[in-house]
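Run folding on both entries below.
>entry_1
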Amino acid sequence: MLGVIAGDIIGSSYEGTNKAKEDFPLFEGDSRFTDDTVLSVATADALLNGGDYIEAYQEYYNRYPNCGYGGSFTEMAKVNNLKPYDSYGNGSAMRVGPIGWAFETIEETLVEAQISAEVTHNHPEGVKGAKAVAMAMFYARNTQDKDLIIKNVSDLGYDLSKSIEDFEIDKFDVSCQGTIPLCMAVFNDTDSFEEAIRLAVRMGGDADTNAAIVGGIAEAYYGSVPVGIQKGIFERIPEEMANIVVPFVKEFVDSDYKKPLVRIRDDVTKEESLGSLFGL
């Protein structure tokens, strides 16, 4: 969950470019959350509170309407008419991360991933992309065997035989068919959460979404997101999002989780400051 948001925010400054150097700053002045974070938090909200996915996606679009959503999604959401539109875009894959944490069996995980995808991305490739990411996260949090993770995702119908050197840098491919193999190669060819995020971003193209997907899988595999990166997240998301993210992490990821102390901004109230101090 935190890995998805971290990847999205860190990648947001570099979408459509490959200007990021190997040691690029993780958080820039224009680093911000985008639709990847908004809809992932919406998924988490639905799981926590028993809501309907399409209603959650519509509600969160209405709260945060200018966050870089896809064209078809925007056209429907802005008139409050979200419905399936046969999409195979990677939107189904980038918002499914919370489902990868929330269930105890792979069967439940795959069923729920399909449900979350089909409310908009009901093309078979859109559904498959959501299943692939949820599956990768499920196995990543339950095994340290990358070969097993890659094999299981491959069995959905992806060719995951390529290493990262086989992919074109700065190729802007927003399909699930193009996104999943790249993200799995980034995960497979790196050895830490931060290294995975950095490589996803340096590949350019749809950097925020690619890094969000990689971040979700990497968090599940490596067990956590570095505290410094967590602070960067909570400095950049509104309190109402944090009030979903923190309970979700406590419920499904780490029951002892505490939100890290973050910098107090001028627009943060005293109550919110106290909440940060006590991990609320």
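>entry_2
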Amino acid sequence: MDDLRITLVQPDIKWKDIQGNLELYSQMLSAGKIDTDLILFPEMFQTGFCIEPESLAESMTGNTVRWLKRTAGTMNCAVAGSLIIKEGRRYFNRIVYFDQFENMTWYDKRHLFSFSGENVKYTRGLKRLIVPLKGWQINFQTCYDLRFPVWARNRNDYEVLINLANWPASRAEAWHTLLKARSIENQSYVIGVTRVGVDGNTISYTGNSTVFDPRGHILAEMQESHEGLLSANLSWDNLEIFRKEFPALKDGDNFEIV
């Protein structure tokens, strides 16, 4: 199996400025040559984390979704980012994913952040999203989902767990610890993508977007409080060898999520 090349975008998101953020990302991606299979943007990457979706929500045929599709086509790779989507009278914190052939699917955030009131304005998702890419299986989650290991539990159905987040500086140690724990317990690569800067609610973010290998070792990590891109190469051979040498997943418990 071929290795997988991943590129993380760690931005200073402009507060509630959809067009300004999309222009920023276009500039960041065009600044250098990017050889990658998948580009990842943080949670609510074109607005910042907002619990007032009424004026910011878009449809699945809106400007941001079209931009993601164009980016997948232009860069000849898969892309994913979370944004606010409206369907009927309901709002979703939704990861929209396009593969390298511009086919679309999505994931609605399962665990809404009640501490901020996200659960009042948004509708939670009911299904996991695991997508194939170059023979790999990739599981997508959003921010607060990271704190719920049952939702991330690997039942031999993925090799990469990706969390797209707006994770604040005040809980940076938890971010690092939880990402590492998910990699060890699921024997998978785990990728955490977040932002830097200060949002419109004066919440600070130091970034620390990180890639962990299946042993819980850091494979790549973005410089703290630095806006930019981070790329990492995921080795299929290293993953397969480790799982064969230490086949812990086969001893996992059977369960059903309701």
